[in-house]
Amino acid sequence: MPGPVMPETAPSENPVLVTGGTGYVGGHLVATLLERGYRVRATVRDAGRADAVGHLVRVAGVDPGDRLETVVTSLDVDAGWAEALAGVSVVHHVASPFLSVPPERADEVIVPAVEGTLRVLRHARDAGAAQVVLTSSFAAVGYGPLAARPDERPYDERDWTDLDHPNDPYIRSKVLAERAAWDFVAEQDTGARTPLGLTVLNPTGIFGPVLGGRLSTSVGAVGAMLTGDLATLPRMRFGVVDVRDVAEAHVRAMTTPAAVGERILLTSGDVVTWGWVIELLRRELGAEITTVEQPAVGELSPLAISNDKARRLLGMSFRPAQTTLLDTARSLAPAL
């Protein structure tokens, strides 16, 4: 079998594909790629959103010139993917359904996530792409009973969320979609075709400046705090990573041959609570926040998440959580 084609190590005339170009991560990634000189093709779900990608890029301070194009397609159909992948060697699969549904309707989240990921991989393979860089999540890494972990080390890329634990459908969808992706590349029957390489990035909670009106759930919580539309938030610990660092990691993953076949956690290294976020915004920005953190039921479990692999393999350095959360709030409420 032929060896894998190396990923893009420098801009070329071939476009790089970004799925979900109007999303929170997608918009930042498109802007970062364009800023580095790459030609970018972004997918959008409907033609009416095609101009939105360019708008997000300009908000990020990047002039796309003639290096940005859009293709209309969706994770739930095959139509449009051949056009989207024509001449593409690297695919950044960022788009992902995020629906809040009752447990009895879990398949409404899980099935689109798994089938959408496999659809992108299948079409990328058939088009002769060299690499897919997939945005997964810490949701696929660190949810489940702590007793199942062998020791008190920080979570790292060896860990997987326990599918036997009653996690919500979104968390389960992230685990199943990522496992399906790894199974797909492991089971490729390519014959004479060059095998498709896969790199998976697992960010913790993504925050940072917004470029448009479509907010992620995490960023939306910060926005609701600032507007007074959120009464309470749960007492919990979570990791933080800046959306700009996630975009940077995607670019480095496609320019680092050793990243092919690797799973890489993305996190600042800081672990925070919503109470910490509330006090930070009050103290540093003078924000009048009425949101309160719910009392914890017992002691909060300890949480530590390693970013050693991202630093070592991709040469990443991460913005601290304080910088990221303050930039998030300022982008949502410029008067602060």
Automatic annotation (TrEMBL):
Keywords: Oxidoreductase. It comes from the Bacteria. InterPro entries: Epimerase_deHydtase, NAD(P)-bd_dom_sf, NAD(P)_dehydrat-like. SUPFAM superfamilies: NAD(P)-binding Rossmann-fold domains. The keyword Oxidoreductase applies. The keyword Oxidoreductase applies. Residues 16-260 form the NAD-dependent epimerase/dehydratase domain. Belongs to the NAD(P)-dependent epimerase/dehydratase family. Dihydroflavonol-4-reductase subfamily. PANTHER family: NAD DEPENDENT EPIMERASE/DEHYDRATASE (PTHR10366), STEROL-4-ALPHA-CARBOXYLATE 3-DEHYDROGENASE, DECARBOXYLATING (PTHR10366:SF564). This is NAD-dependent epimerase/dehydratase family protein. It comes from Promicromonospora kroppenstedtii.
